[in-house]
Task: inverse folding
């Protein structure tokens, strides 16, 4: 499929790279393609970034048949632009699409489209410390139909946003509490798909945590409220007695690409990483035995987010004295260094534009 | 707040009332209002039905922060237009909004807006047998922001669609099977909110049921896979030994307005209705004892949908010989009769335009 390109005649002013916030500024162009049942994906094009027209009956506005991805492009000191494991994101998008009854995309084709888009908007890739170009591919149902069924039409779009650090406070360790009213998901639900409904469903818990003075939610499994699953919208890792533990993927946990990369990176360093179910009680028990050395979340937006404390059943726990742990920092420095080209990419994760 | 009205200059041709399908045709006008944090709802207007403009970064397209309602207006033999328990829908919408961190609407105001809209498009309210005007109020997040948080801007819209029967086969009893891979929701999730994510999450199970030759899914609870919760996107009722049983509302089940009306109607007839948890094993046991007399679903779109059979663990069960039951038919006739003005409204459920 050919990609038609319509360039913006007057480019937008670029934001100050040293004062970028997350997800509010968008570049000059975007990629769009449409899907029609029986015809497949068609009309691939790069056009000026701007509003889209939707029928008020478009199914996405009613039934949330939608999937997204989050990935980044980085500028190296030499001025090269590079991606971090981009094909992992498109592969995950197709797994999410399958769960949400959304047609598969051609992963190679959309990565090619992404490269063309980033090349066109390359002056938007920031190079100030800690910055990157956030990439948001997403797909949603557009049938103007208000009965409940799988849509016959979709739009796939990629938009780009130059971003600073995801958390305004940077790598400041967050305090989390165990969510005890709301559930994120359950086995057989949509927890392992990157679909909108998971995020909308979590907002009430996020607001409650903030109201109660916590930055983050520790999610337990929805069925038994026993097993640790995620922290906020990130995967979670514990350093316990010199080993690393992260909850295993068994259908309810988002298979994070940063999660996977952290596991592989730690193993490349000779560290032991165990993927298994872990209950909150076991965790608290380890804490009381002084075994919990570091706790951190992982995700594309923040790479790693250190967790300094946990409130559970009236007890205030503190990890590594509430400071960022040695490995948390080292993982961040290594991954962000690889991503921005200041650390050697020994693992073959970088794809140059 | 005043509602500004912009009328369509050229009205659209109306569809043939005798060949209406569900949810594909929309009337000449729609109602829209906007919400801005700190300012509240504003710019209420009735405008010609047509496409809306959204930022591609609009949060609804990424995080599914969205809620909808479904209700109907009917034309009586005298040509009057009337609604069925409309305030119940707007009250439920506000409960859904609260769960999804969407601002509350002024229920009286939006009902007034709806009445003005329906009055303007009154020639679209069909009067052929079995037809009605389906009303779809919905609200969604519009902030152009790709971080995960509650939106600061929303659109509330009402669109109208003249409809025939929801199921093309009419009151033909459906066969259902017990969904054993996918889950709909769990306690603490969004199951009792009428939010998009619940519906997108259910599509895969719906497609699987259809592929396996069933019209409907019987959903068990997501935690233990034991308790009967809903059928497809409807509430479920059983007539057992002369009494009626429906699963109790305890956070995972949509509090259907038709469900509530059926309970109240049956009780007004002197029937016993029990709201309680019921396991699939107890149901099967009742079936084997010959106690299951009728099974039906309830919802706004179809009013009641008779269930003629169930496949579970290799057993093919049949209810009332696969035919619509006496009470199922009587409930449909009474409710639809009230709605369309051919049966006396003893219960005070009808609101005239």
Result:
């Amino acid at each position: 499929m050919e990609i038609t390109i319509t360039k913006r005649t007057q480019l937008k002013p670029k934001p100050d790279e040293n004062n970028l916030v997350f997800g509010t500024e968008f570049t000059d162009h975007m990629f769009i393609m449409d899907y029609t049942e029986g015809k497949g994906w068609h009309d691939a094009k790069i056009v000026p970034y701007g509003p889209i027209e939707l029928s008020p009956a478009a199914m996405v506005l009613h039934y949330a048949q939608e999937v997204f991805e989050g990935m980044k492009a980085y500028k190296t000191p030499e001025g090269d632009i590079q991606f971090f494991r981009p094909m992992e994101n498109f592969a995950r998008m197709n797994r999410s699409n399958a769960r949400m009854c959304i047609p598969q995309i051609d992963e190679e084709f959309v990565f090619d489209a992404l490269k063309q888009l980033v090349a066109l908007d390359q002056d938007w890739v920031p190079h100030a410390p800690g910055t990157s170009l956030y990439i948001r591919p997403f797909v949603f149902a557009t049938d103007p139909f208000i009965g409940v069924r799988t849509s016959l039409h979709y739009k796939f779009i990629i938009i780009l946003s130059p971003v600073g650090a995801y958390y305004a406070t940077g790598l400041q360790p967050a305090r989390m509490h165990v969510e005890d009213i709301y559930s994120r998901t359950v086995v057989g639900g949509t927890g392992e798909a990157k679909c909108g409904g998971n995020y909308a469903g979590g907002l009430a818990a996020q607001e409650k945590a903030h109201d109660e003075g916590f930055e983050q939610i520790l999610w337990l499994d929805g069925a038994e409220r026993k097993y640790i699953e995620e922290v906020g919208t990130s995967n979670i890792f514990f350093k316990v007695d010199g080993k690393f533990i992260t909850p295993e993927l068994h259908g309810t946990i988002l298979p994070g690409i940063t999660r996977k990369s952290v596991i592989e990176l730690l193993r490349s360093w000779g560290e032991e990483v165990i993927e298994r179910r872990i209950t909150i009680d076991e965790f608290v028990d380890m804490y009381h035995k002084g075994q919990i050395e570091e706790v951190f979340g992982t995700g594309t937006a923040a790479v790693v987010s250190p967790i300094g404390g946990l409130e559970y059943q009236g007890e205030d726990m503190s990890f590594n004295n509430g400071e960022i742990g040695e490995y948390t920092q080292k993982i961040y420095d290594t991954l962000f260094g690889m991503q921005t080209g200041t650390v050697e990419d020994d693992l073959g994760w970088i794809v140059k534009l």
Summary: The longest strand of chain B covers residues 153-163.
